[in-house]
Design brief:
Blueprint lengths: L6 E9 L5 H13 L7 E8 L12 E7 L2 H9 L1 H10 L3 E9 L7
Antiparallel strand pairs: 1-3, 1-4, 2-3
Length: 108
Amino acid sequence: MEEGKVVKHILLAKFKDGLSEEQIEEIIKGYASLVNLVPSMKAFRWGKDVSIENMHQGFTHVFESTFESTEGIAEYVTHADHVKYANMLLPQLEKVIVVDYKPTAVQL
């Protein structure tokens, strides 16, 4: 999949207080497993905020899923395994933002 030919699905999350690191790790493993369950989901990556700018507004985790098209994201959103996972995930979050975009390189 070349740049410009993919769509990124970004989820920024702040988990609710009281969840242990082990619980969060299990939640992340569940998210990662969707790449093997949802055919339109081509890749998954995640990370924790490491910025020194302190502009994270409380968001602590970033999740990035890669799709070949916006239609692929639509298939993902309605896929039974994603719906089941989302119904488990969302109550564990204090805050969430989701953004879908097509990466674009800047030609200099």
